[in-house]
Amino acid sequence: MAFGQEHATAIDESLARLDQRNAKVVEELADRFDRIGKTQADAIALFRAERAALSPGEARRLFDQLYLRAPDGSRRGTHAMFEGGPTAIGLTRGMTGFIPARIERDDEAVRDIVAATLAVRRLGEGSRFELESLYYFTPQNGIVIFAPDRSDRLEFYRRTAPGDFSFQDREFATISTMAANPARKMMCTGLQSLISLKDQEVWTTGCMTPVDRDNRHVGTFGTSMPLDQIAPAGRFAGSIDENVILISREGRLIYHPDYTLQHSSHTGTYLDITTSDTPELAALWQLVSRHGKTGFSGKVDALGAFVSLRSVPGAGWYALAVKPQGMILAEALRPIPRIAAMAVIALTVCLLIVTLVLRRLVARPLRRLSRDAERITRELAAESMLELPDGERTGSEVGQLVSRFETLASAIRQSHSQLEARVAERTRALNEANEKLRVLSELDPLTGVANRRKIMAELEGRIERMGSASALAVLILDIDSFKSINDRHGHVAGDDTLRALAARVQSLLRPGDALGRMGGEEFMIVLDRARPVVAEAIAERVRAAIARQPFQVHGNVTLTVTASLGVAGWRPGDTAKALYARADAALYQAKAAGRNCAISAQDQTGNRSAA
């Protein structure tokens, strides 16, 4: 019985750990698809805004300057768009485009291409740390793409694609049509080879969000995920005998450690598992077909393994965590030696007890023990430490002894319960006091943001974790002429202004950024993963948001407030004090430059945002 219970418990625990691991895989994948979906939604909104602001003439002018005509009649992005340099729309890098000849004859299509170029340029660099690429393509085979880190440097689209190049039969284009995607939501493809690197067998999948106008499909924003980037999503710490497999709801193999390999021509032969002759892949599809909608956790005989099956929100994929049956059974058999040892020990002890009982008389010791127990209970009752039962148990010494010990045990349990209640109450009070002390020590009591000690500690901690390729920036914000607010309207109005400004700045920051009050009217903003161009853009956004909308303060007073900002980016070897000092120096430059501006410590010429 003990072995059976241990065996079943061990299997249940192993299966629970397998399911927990799979839940982590699904959580990471769902988070990735959520970020992709939000980026593409932002791209569509920006595309519509840019297009509305473009006149046909301006769109044609930008189109001619950005996309030069090739000898085959098509147009390709300029050299500066990819290599980095000034263009008709400003500095760009990592971008190009392939525009078939017939698109330039359609003014509306030209306007779409230019609006998409502006949208991709603005969002591409900001999403580079999370997305491998961002592109826009049309049903007329035009494409604008941002992918600065691709090893092929987009040479296919920039130079080698034929003038009659068409990709409308590819899955990433077909799932964007109204027939295939009537809900007009983001959909993801199965695994497929890159058009531009077909001979190298570079396998990737992509997620597409269509763009419509007047009930007509005009284009699609897409993001690609190479197989090498998909695979790490299933590489959580765990047993090397556990595999993670990804399958689309259409029966396409997305990731399998044994069958989907980057740069392998054999990968293509395993992608469609709905008709696969491989027993393992056929068993996987049968499992997904039967349990994909509801999920599954248990033993699969056809695979000789235990499997956890979960759906991945946002992609139409299924994640399967698989562990061979032999490994789980081996874990379940581990308790056998321990159970056998316990059985031997228990049997030996029982034999010894029986032998001693048979050899010795037990009546006299029992009587003596019973008398002692009676004496103890009566003494404790006299001291009001316990209550004697209403009726004394009569009979043998064993029955009386049991009665006495039951009385003692009841008193001990009651005392223990009271003690635990007192300890719990003291612990709760101590925890509440500690939490209040922590809040008082870390938060600024006026604005509710981090105080100087907390924000500096946050900055020091982040710098300690910085790698050579990491990015971080610090903004120092100071309210312009704050003393005049206190002098003219009183300190209550000044305090209201500080609180309102802190709340507005906090609402503008990204997840992972931190805001703290350094003292007086000075605040520090720590920007996570922010390179100089991103930090300067955020600083300008904060400055403009403060100056654009007046603040309502005590006494129904409306105040127009401006602020000056100093920006400094982290450099290898920087300490928190050094980084703060550079940002503070840039703040003084902003004050000297006339206030209501943001100046970067990297720009010694005094370049600043417009007031």
Topology overview:
Blueprint: H1 2-53, H2 56-66, E1 67-69, E2 75-77, H3 79-83, E3 85-87, E4 90-92, E5 95-99, H4 107-124, E6 134-137, E7 143-146, H5 155-160, H6 171-174, E8 187-188, E9 192-193, E10 203-213, E11 216-226, H7 227-230, E12 243-248, E13 253-255, H8 279-291, E14 296-300, E15 305-312, E16 317-324, H9 325-333, H10 335-359, H11 363-382, H12 397-442, H13 452-464, E17 472-479, H14 482-489, H15 491-508, E18 514-519, E19 522-528, H16 532-548, E20 551-553, E21 557-559, E22 563-569, H17 576-592, E23 598-600
Parallel strand pairs: 22-23
Antiparallel strand pairs: 1-2, 2-5, 3-4, 5-7, 6-7, 6-11, 8-10, 9-10, 10-11, 12-13, 12-16, 14-15, 15-16, 17-19, 17-22, 18-19, 20-21
Helix pairs in contact: 1-4, 1-9, 2-4, 11-12, 14-15, 15-16
Structure keywords:
611 residues, alpha+beta, five-stranded antiparallel β-sheet, disordered C terminus
Summarize the structure in short.
With 611 residues, the protein is α+β, with helices and mostly antiparallel strands. The protein has 17 helices and 23 strands. Helices cover 47% and strands 19% of the residues.
- In terms of DSSP E residues, the strand content is 15-25%
Tell me about the biggest sheet?
9 strands, antiparallel
Mean of residue pLDDT values: 86
Shape: flat
Helix/strand structural class: alpha+beta
Helix content: 40-55%
Low-confidence stretches: 603-611
Distance between the termini: 80 Å
Radius of gyration: 36 Å
Count of helical segments?
17
Number of strands: 23
Characterization of this structure:
With 611 residues, the protein is of the alpha+beta class. It has 17 helices and 23 strands. It has helices spanning 2-53, 56-66, 79-83, 107-124, 155-160, 171-174, 227-230, 279-291, 325-333, 335-359, 363-382, 397-442, 452-464, 482-489, 491-508, 532-548, 576-592, and strands at 67-69, 75-77, 85-87, 90-92, 95-99, 134-137, 143-146, 187-188, 192-193, 203-213, 216-226, 243-248, 253-255, 296-300, 305-312, 317-324, 472-479, 514-519, 522-528, 551-553, 557-559, 563-569, 598-600. The strands form five sheets. Strands 1, 2, 5, 6, 7, 8, 9, 10 and 11 form a nine-stranded antiparallel β-sheet that branches.
